[in-house]
Specification:
Blueprint: E1 2-5, H1 26-29, E2 33-37, H2 41-53, E3 57-61, H3 64-73, E4 78-82, H4 90-100, E5 104-109, H5 117-122, E6 127-130, H6 135-179, H7 187-201, H8 206-217, H9 228-231, H10 239-245, H11 248-256, H12 265-271, H13 292-307, H14 318-327, H15 335-346
């Protein structure tokens, strides 16, 4: 939907000559709606006629505050606003839209001193039109903004679909590992849930938190190369056996490294057993050499492993797990990640679920 504000009557000379963008199908155009906002009824009526000639639905409002009320309940796509308006000028309206909505904005003015093209774009506008204007040019610009908005919408839908495919693949890989190791069934899922909660508690961007969750779901992928009887051995591992187990981060990395992911998934998996003091494996990384995502995953992995049952020992419980990360906070484990984990569990904002 599109919002218009305070057009001068001169803008509507030869209104019957206004043209519709023929490259845009009528079905798409009819999905769009325009909100015409102006304190002059005659201007609102003229703009509404122009909008209808372009095959868009149309709402009208007499001021900016009324326009915001409509924006709150209607699916508006583009806002076209004059700069000089009573009670709320176009710049103020644009700021409110940027804060609370997601519409494109086209600014219009009859006074060049109000704002320049560069200033309008800097304020968040998608376009800027100097009044008086030709209706043909007006329609072309309007349709261009809508076309670009539709293209962005289609791109987002495509990316969302790709994300779902990626998540499905990672989930399948996770199930493949756990199918071979019934004693730790659900481990990767529980680690992923805790790591995701930690990332959000640390105020990381939502996308990064999601990446940590996906990497956690396959952090033990490399265990598919380890004999199943070794994974479920009910006694302590020998040094040789443990060295074989320790190969799983490298194997996981080798499996994932040639797959194109939008984040460093393979490297996160590679580093989840590295430790801040360099005592981890497989590369002995330390400090800032370890990715933030891997540091968070490492803490979640340790806490889940200690607190859960293993073939060679009963569950040690969450208190023992929290004591481990508190004792080695800043030494083995990232301090911020350890604190986030401790706070989440102690404040009962997170708990492991028994089911997958």
């Amino acid at each position: 939907m599109i919002v218009f504000f305070d057009f001068s009557a001169a803008c509507f000379d030869n209104i019957d000559n206004a043209s519709t963008d023929r490259n845009m199908s009528e079905s798409i155009q009819q999905q769009m709606a325009i909100l015409v906002v102006d304190d002059e009824p005659s201007i609102r009526h003229l703009v509404e006629k122009t909008v209808h000639r372009n095959n868009y639905a149309c709402f009208t409002a007499s001021n900016g505050e009324e326009a915001l009320e409509i924006l709150a309940r209607e699916a508006v796509d583009v806002v076209i606003t004059d700069i000089a308006m009573p009670r709320m000028d176009g710049i103020q309206l644009t700021e409110r839209i940027r804060q609370h909505h997601d519409q494109d904005v086209i600014m219009m003015t009859g006074y060049i001193k109000d704002v320049t093209y560069e200033n309008a774009i800097a304020k968040g506008a998608s376009d800027f039109i100097q009044k008086p204007f030709d209706l043909r040019e007006f329609s072309i610009r309007l349709n261009r903004v809508i076309r670009e908005r539709l293209m962005r919408r289609e791109l987002k839908q495509s990316l969302d679909q790709s994300q779902k495919i990626l998540e499905g693949m990672i989930h399948s890989l996770s199930l493949t590992v756990e199918a071979r190791d019934p004693y730790t069934s659900g481990h990767q899922k529980r680690v992923a849930d805790l790591a995701f909660a930690m990332a959000r508690h640390m105020a990381l961007p939502e996308e990064q938190a999601g990446n940590i969750h996906m990497a956690s779901l396959v952090h033990d992928l490399g265990k598919i190369s380890i004999p199943a009887e070794l994974l479920s051995k009910p006694s302590r591992l020998s040094e040789t056996e443990f060295n074989l187990i320790k190969s799983h981060p490298q194997v996981g990395f080798d499996i994932l490294k040639d797959v194109s992911f939008p984040f460093p998934l393979a490297e996160i998996v590679h580093q989840h057993h590295e430790r801040r003091d360099g005592s981890g494996y497989p590369k002995g990384l330390s400090g800032s050499e370890i990715l933030c995502e891997a540091s968070i995953l490492a803490v979640a992995d340790v806490v889940e492993a200690i607190s859960s049952h293993r073939p060679y020992r009963p569950a040690l419980g969450i208190d023992v797990a929290l004591e481990e990360i508190s004792k080695n906070r800043g030494k083995l484990y990232d301090a911020d990640a350890a604190d986030a984990c401790h706070e989440l569990i102690r404040n009962e904002k997170f708990e492991f679920h028994a089911s997958n």
